[in-house]
Amino acid sequence: MVRVITIDGPSGSGKGTITQQVAEATGWRILDSGAIYRVLGLMADRAGISVDHVGKLSKMAEMMPLSFDGERVLLDGEDVTDAIRTETAGYAASKVAAVPQVRTALLQWQRNYAQAPGLVADGRDMGTVVFPAAEVKIFLTASAEERARRRYKQLKDKGLSVNLARLTTEIQERDERDRNRSVAPLAASETALELDSTEMTIDEVVEKVMEKVRFTFSDLNV
Ligand code: DC
């Protein structure tokens, strides 16, 4: 059986960084499910397909020529790693992610991605919908202000011009949409360990997650 660790939470909660470090510690593969929705958002944007075109969107989702090469995200061989990280792509992702048929179309793709010995899956519904039987489930949060500050710093470091107030509003709006959509809304699984990272360092969060991993998979030497 493939062992799965799910790390869910809103954007900017630190999921990506924590997922990477946990994957390094365990040696397991990462599923960045947000990247899948971002790629689909990009494809829809490029093709001029709106979220109302449910049929076309789910077809696209079913046949998505997506692959991961280490940290690079490839769409039909094209490196779209940077293109999917923009705020516009994030917005497009959140729109397509709210379409139930799209989520269904992507379910199997995500489950197939889990291969032995284990997977660290990062997203919004990894513990609730995609891998409900995962043995370790984490739900990571942080205040909207703190998450906006982190995102601001990330974008600034990349040399992009950003506005903190606008970023905070965008994060709050996206949270709203992700939490209130009818299918697979952003929510903690009942069995998830909830961690609020607002006042925690990355190392502290990783240590908390690893404590749970060691306890659950006691044969792992990590
Ligand atoms: O984690 P992220 O910011 O890359 O995700 C981009 C968008 O995709 C986000 O608005 C929510 C959506 N998403 C989702 O609905 N389900 C997931 N498992 C992952 C992301």
TrEMBL record:
InterPro entries: Cytidylate_kin, Cytidylate_kinase_dom, P-loop_NTPase. The keyword Cytoplasm applies. It comes from the Bacteria. The keyword Transmembrane helix does not apply. Keywords: ATP-binding, Cytoplasm, Kinase, Nucleotide-binding, Transferase. Residues 5-214 form the Cytidylate kinase domain. One of its GO terms (molecular function) is CMP kinase activity. This is Cytidylate kinase. It comes from endosymbiont of Escarpia spicata.
